[in-house]
Amino acid sequence: MDIEKDEKLIAYCGFYCGACPKYKTGKHNCQGCKGDNPICLNSCKVRPCNIENGYSSCVDCKQYTKLQKCKKYNPFLIKLGEFITGTSRKECVEMIRESGKENFVNYMVEKKLVSIKRNKSKKDN
């Protein structure tokens, strides 16, 4: 199944919803993080923070220059999941900051990734 290339599919946290299996297959009627029916609506703390502050994603945050300091961005279960999967939302946000949204989307579509593998972004660019 093809991965949709669209900057609007960059999730608030830096994930790329366009490569997510739930989004691609339409499971749970998922429209991505920024859609009307995000499947993580009740558990995500990042989405409401971005909406309240008018951010397109955590890339725009002025309060925390280092994402590690943001408690909403770094809950224990997310850290555990990233450890298990070897991925890093933080590296996604850093790539967007360094390379721009278009380059990020192109990379994610090319590699078919929802999140960047830890320490891979700098090697592959």
Task: Give me some keywords for this one.
mainly alpha; 39% helix; two-stranded antiparallel sheet; 125 residues; single chain
Helix content: 25-40%
Distance between the termini: 25 Å
Number of helices: 6
Strand order of the largest sheet: 1-2
| Helix/strand structural class | mainly alpha
* SSE arrangement, N to C: HHHEHHEH
In terms of DSSP E residues, the strand content is under 5%
Shape: globular
- Radius of gyration from CA coordinates: 14 Å
Give the strand tally. Answer: 2
The average pLDDT value, as a whole number, equals: 85
Number of structural domains: 1
- Note poorly predicted spans: 121-125
How would you characterize the largest beta sheet? 2 strands, antiparallel
Structure description:
By secondary structure, the protein is mainly alpha-helical. The protein has one domain. Helices cover 39% and strands 3% of the residues. The protein has helices at 21-25, 46-53, 76-85, 89-99, 101-111, 121-124; strands spanning 87-88, 116-117. A two-stranded antiparallel sheet has the order 1-2. Helix 4 (89-99) packs across helix 5. Mean pLDDT is 85; it is low at 121-125.
Quick summary of this structure?
This protein is mainly alpha-helical. Helices cover 39% and strands 3% of the residues.
Question: How would you summarize the topology of this molecule?
Answer:
Layout: H1 21-25, H2 46-53, H3 76-85, E1 87-88, H4 89-99, H5 101-111, E2 116-117, H6 121-124
Antiparallel strand pairs: 1-2
